[in-house]
């Protein structure tokens, strides 16, 4: 089971919000097997006000006064479904162009949104294109003004199209780096050869290169019309005055393109899919590292009455560790992962199953087991427990996925756009509750028909997962590259709609802090706005304790915690959570093991009890340990075949010496070298109450939670002093260092530039945040983005950041380019760093960066799951509990002199480590 995020193509990757829709999101309280009662406390449609303007614009408003923020979203009913032959990707190309400015505001809209402190993004999908921003409530009218402006007046000229075509092609070529993407594209084209759904949402390079200005303008005029759009506003506002502002901004926009829309809607995707007999698998034999399988079955459209039963069926097959396909494939050692999902769209969609083979396992054998599992589902009724578990997971994920106003707006926008009725979710949930075991059998027989299946195999030709290395890069970096002048914020300001700046986090509640008698630290922050709980935690048992010989030990230990305890096996642990739609997970980072948990508020006891059980009583069964090791080895192969992860590994190892705790990364030898005794010893040494911190945010009574924690974790005892690791300071390289790693079969190169940076408690941290916001904190509004992305069109995305933890992490810049553009992009980046070092920044840039950071901060505080992470991190880093409230003031207190000093201390273009991973031909002309 997975949310339908695979349907989306969004282009601001650093800001992409994982919020979208969808049939796989829902909640549950115990009820008879065929009737599951929805949870009370959160109604997505209660309080929604629908208005249709005279020009046809649908407006949905929902007041939610839990935080001083608002979300403004515009959903257009157009996506790749509407594209004709030869224009695949035009919806996506237009999405990019919608950020290039308007007649009255000829500036990058990303800079305007950033200046308002908006958390913004956009995506294109099969049926829709959506634009969304979430801001402090005083910026509501400003967002409305900007969205209305680009609905009518977007600049679509030769200059804009030429530069953004290059960016889109860079994005598409980046997808080509992924074997999963290439396999999915081949399977979808074979499954739907005569339908637009069979083509990639993002488009094809061949079609994108041929787009003309007239073609894109006509598409814009046809579909970006008020009567083809839904405006959604959720959050802290007054409906009456907001509707007046909406009418002022949008009411004067005319309808347009009706005839063209009607012509394009006719029959584009209506070709029925009829049985053609079993087809031979599509086989891709290409460079890669792991074997993949994907199968696709046609489904009806989203309004078909079978949709709820199909989604419950999917949860039974792929919904968590207790699901049938996970048990049959992953727990048996045949596959390292399996997932599935139903794409229920405006027109007939599909159901897909994806699997990654375990080491040495044949895809044909995996396919046989999948077929047997599907056949059993068709022939034998599911049990009441299994049916209830699936319904619970669907319903709980609906509540958990809509804790914040951005997600709630997206759910409304999706339902209105795809089904024509924002109330659809109510009908859907009611139908989910009534799905029976007979319904599951019926839809399994109807839709999981082998005669209608399209299946594809990816068989890697580079099976050892070892990336070729070229050592030091021979191509030269051009040193005399001259960057353009930085954008003047004063010039930008004249295009900003009026908005006050009222950042005020003084009312933010502070977490209650206390420690159990055994030293375990706890932070509790009640929030009764939604009936959920969010748990974040950290154990000081991260990979900094790994040795090079046993690199991966920390992660292997964390990955086995849920594989069994003294009283429960792995399946029992999974079912205890999944029966209630709750989740709990562990992953080792460099400085600790991260704990993440979510659930409905009524299920906090089982979440805490399960956490307590595995922290104190994990048993590490040998069989499960071997399965986890095999999955880790497969994951390693995939990482070595991915320019992003391989580039980061090589970059990190170029910065830190071999004896440094931040140097070690797992290898096949180190993972194989780890014994069960190593894991048990690591667990006993490093999993201790006095090195553990837990933060809980949500709908609970603190006194009851304190009692629960004392009962569950109070008897956990540590022996002796906790282990420590010495993290030495790292000197910068004396000269610029270059490394190139070649991975066969890749289309795009990924480059990292940087060196060792600062810690979170470094007094320069806040100045560094402001500096980074100016330099590369946002690919659309930063100096790097303006120069390398917008002006030169060399990259789909370029970002910078300080990885500041308890210890100093790296300062880094990351970008993706065509291999022949890598040298120019590197040269322009270095030139920008030199310009920054030599000329500094302006007071206007500093002021704008401050406003961006402080204005966007309340948006983060409006999401309970974000808040749990923030208060945890503040505690782990040794900061005051009041940091969550005082952070904006600390940013505002930074002076111009502080920023200039940070530039002097932290920007060292002559000491850069530059690592490029990808195809290898990174010099112009492919040399």
The CA-CA distance between the termini, in Å, is 45 Å
| Helical run tally | 32
Helicity range: 40-55%
Strand content: 15-25%
Family: Belongs to the peptidase M16 family.
Biased composition (Polar residues): 265-274
InterPro entries: Metalloenz_LuxS/M16, MPP/UQCRC_Complex, Pept_M16_N, Peptidase_M16_C
Pfam family, one: Peptidase_M16_C
Q: Which keywords apply here?
A:
single chain; 927 residues; alpha+beta; six-stranded mixed beta sheet; 32 helices; 24 strands; disordered N terminus; MPP/UQCRC_Complex; Insulinase family protein; Metalloenz_LuxS/M16; Peptidase_M16_C
Secondary-structure blueprint:
Elements: E1 9-10, E2 48-52, E3 58-63, E4 69-76, H1 90-97, H2 109-115, E5 119-124, E6 129-136, H3 140-153, H4 158-176, H5 179-191, H6 205-210, H7 213-223, E7 229-235, H8 239-250, H9 258-265, E8 282-286, E9 292-298, H10 307-318, H11 324-330, E10 335-343, E11 350-357, H12 363-379, H13 384-400, H14 405-419, H15 424-434, H16 437-447, E12 454-460, E13 468-469, H17 489-493, E14 512-515, E15 521-526, E16 532-539, H18 553-559, H19 570-578, E17 583-588, E18 593-600, H20 604-617, H21 622-640, H22 643-655, H23 668-672, H24 676-686, E19 692-698, H25 702-713, E20 737-742, E21 749-756, H26 765-775, H27 783-791, E22 795-802, E23 810-817, H28 822-839, H29 843-861, H30 864-876, H31 883-892, H32 896-906, E24 913-918
Parallel strand pairs: 3-7, 8-12, 15-19, 20-24
Antiparallel strand pairs: 1-5, 2-3, 4-6, 4-7, 5-6, 9-11, 9-12, 10-11, 13-20, 14-15, 16-18, 16-19, 17-18, 21-23, 21-24, 22-23
Helix pairs in contact: 1-4, 3-8, 10-13, 10-15, 10-16, 11-12, 12-16, 18-24, 20-25, 26-29, 26-32, 27-28, 29-31
